[in-house]
């Protein structure tokens, strides 16, 4: 028998989650993308809803169904994702699981680029807005708990620690995405959770888990943190 607080530890809590890749248009028929499947972010949204939270999931293009009880907003590009995130605030907790494209093409072609007799067209890139950093550094409506991911192929903990500081978030969920791990597109994930309290960073290393188990464990940690702040 579960007391209501145990069954629905996030009842009354508003969670905002980003997931999936973004697509950055080159011309009307082509885009830049990455290998993110969206599975981890969707699993976190489902686990949060199961814990009683009110969940808004803002996702780039993925082939996944809406999780039960989750409000899903589908976007294409990083700039659309940023606008949707800003519109979804305020939130109690924000989890940025999306693999946002770091760059977009500087000027999108209005027509399909055609092959010519000359050299292939150069793609001039410009940096996308950093959605996590812009929310973590907001003066107004900053969610009390802002959680980022760090996808790394080398120097995992060092890179994750500097990301935590640089982006101004509270926690970083660091995962090794080097090809041998099969994390990108796969069903398993190896997580190191970095949490920051004042200037002290703590690291918890979790065993290899399915992405669903990672979601459940993360939601349990979030529930604990939310309860501690409330009491
Ligand atoms: N992120 C974001 N907006 C971006 C880039 C990243 O919100 N334009 C978020 C991701 O959702 C993730 C975190 O920032 O929560 C870290 O993303 P990552 O790609 O690992 O870090 P970057 O800062 O982009 O650095 P790099 O890709 O060079 O490692
Ligand atoms: Ca990046």
Automatic annotation (TrEMBL):
It comes from the Bacteria. CTP binds at residues 102, 112, 129-132, 149, 163, 167. Coiled coil: none annotated. Residues 10-224 form the DNA/pantothenate metabolism flavoprotein C-terminal domain. In the C-terminal section; belongs to the PPC synthetase family. Catalyzes two sequential steps in the biosynthesis of coenzyme A. In the first step cysteine is conjugated to 4'-phosphopantothenate to form 4-phosphopantothenoylcysteine. In the second step the latter compound is decarboxylated to form 4'-phosphopantotheine. This is Coenzyme A biosynthesis bifunctional protein CoaBC. The gene is coaBC. The chain holds residues 245 to 475 of 475 of the full protein.
